[in-house]
C-alpha cells in the first residue's frame, strides 16, 4: 500500500510492505487525519490554532491540551540542553514549536500504524523518515548538490532526520545570538524515534560545530554531519548501508 498527501507544508509519503495486506485503508486514513489535525492545532501560521491562541494569551497554561503541554515541555528540555541555542520563543518572534511538532506528530502517526498491525513500513515526511521492519535504505542528500547523495543509511527499526540550509536557506536560528546558525552545512541524526531524531538534528544544527558532539552524546543518537569547511564527521555507530537492503529514494 502506498499513499502520498501534502500535509504541514510538505509531502508525506507512506509505504506499507506487509505480506498479505495487513493494515487496511481505514488505518491509513487515521494516520493522515492525525497529521492534518496536528497541523491545525499546532501550526503557528494558523490564527485559530491552539499554539496561536496560547501565544496571544487567549489560553492559559492550565487550559492547554495534554498534547501541546507535552510539545512545549520538549521544547523547554531542548532549550535548556543547548544553552538556549534551540528556542521556540526567539526574541521578536511568536511561539514556534514546529521543530518539535514535526517529528513528534509523525512519530505518533507511525505509532498508530504499529498499533493497527503494520510491521514493515516507511513513513517519509519531507525527507525525515520513520521506518519499521527493514532493512530500508535512506539516502542523505548532498548539502550543496541536489542531485547527489552524500551517504546512504540502512535502517531496520528507527528514524532519520536531517537539518540543513539547502531547502529553506538559513532558516534555523541560533537562539543565543538571534542570527542564522553557522558552522554546519547539514546534520543528520539516526535515533529510535523521529521525536528524538528531528528535534536533536535541529537543535544541534542551531549550535553549529559544537552541536555534533552534543548530538552524539544524546542517548540512542548517531550523527552524520558536513561542516562549513565541507568536512564529513560521523559517529562510529552510523548505520551506513551494506548489500541486501531495499533502496528507498528520499
Describe this protein's structure.
The protein is α+β, with helices and mostly antiparallel strands. It has a single domain (2-248), classed as ApbE-like domains (T-fold, Roll), CATH 3.10.520. The chain contains six helices and 13 strands. It has helices at 25-42, 50-55, 66-81, 98-115, 194-207, 210-216, and strands at 2-7, 10-16, 121-125, 128-132, 136-141, 149-155, 158-164, 173-174, 179-180, 184-191, 222-227, 232-234, 246-248. It has an eight-stranded antiparallel sheet with strand order 1-2-3-4-7-10-11-12. Strands 6-5-13 form a three-stranded mixed sheet, with no helix packed on it. A hairpin with a 4-residue loop joins strand 11 (222-227) and strand 12 (232-234). The protein is globular. The two termini are 18 Å apart. The model is unreliable at 243-250 (pLDDT under 50).
Amino acid at each position: 500500500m502506498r499513499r502520498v498527501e501534502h500535509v504541514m507544508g510538505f509531502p508525506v509519503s507512506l509505504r506499507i510492505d506487509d505480506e498479505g495486506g495487513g493494515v487496511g485503508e481505514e488505518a491509513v486514513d487515521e494516520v493522515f487525519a492525525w497529521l492534518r489535525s496536528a497541523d491545525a492545532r499546532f501550526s503557528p501560521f494558523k490564527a485559530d490554532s491552539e499554539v496561536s491562541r496560547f501565544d496571544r494569551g487567549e489560553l492559559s497554561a492550565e487550559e492547554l491540551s495534554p498534547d501541546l503541554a507535552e510539545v512545549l515541555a520538549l521544547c523547554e528540555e531542548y532549550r535548556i540542553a543547548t544553552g538556549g541555542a534551540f528556542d521556540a520563543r526567539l526574541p521578536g518572534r511568536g511561539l514556534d514549536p514546529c521543530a518539535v511538532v514535526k517529528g513528534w506528530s509523525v512519530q505518533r502517526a507511525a505509532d498508530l500504524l504499529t498499533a493497527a498491525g503494520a510491521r514493515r513500513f516507511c513513513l517519509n515526511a519531507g525527507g525525515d523518515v520513520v521506518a519499521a521492519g527493514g532493512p530500508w535504505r535512506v539516502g542523505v542528500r548532498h548539502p550543496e548538490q541536489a542531485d547527489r547523495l552524500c551517504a546512504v543509511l540502512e535502517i531496520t527499526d528507527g528514524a532519520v532526520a536531517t537539518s540543513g540550509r539547502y531547502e529553506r536557506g538559513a532558516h534555523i536560528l541560533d537562539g543565543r545570538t538571534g542570527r542564522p546558525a553557522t558552522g554546519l552545512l547539514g546534520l543528520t541524526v539516526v535515533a529510535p524515534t523521529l521525536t528524538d531524531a528531528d528535534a536533536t538534528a535541529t537543535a544541534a544544527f542551531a549550535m553549529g560545530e559544537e552541536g555534533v558532539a552534543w548530538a552524539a552524546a544524546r542517548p540512542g543518537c548517531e550523527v552524520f554531519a558536513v561542516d562549513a569547511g565541507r568536512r564529513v564527521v560521523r559517529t562510529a555507530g552510523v548505520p551506513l548501508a551494506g548489500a541486501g537492503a531495499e533502496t528507498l529514494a528520499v
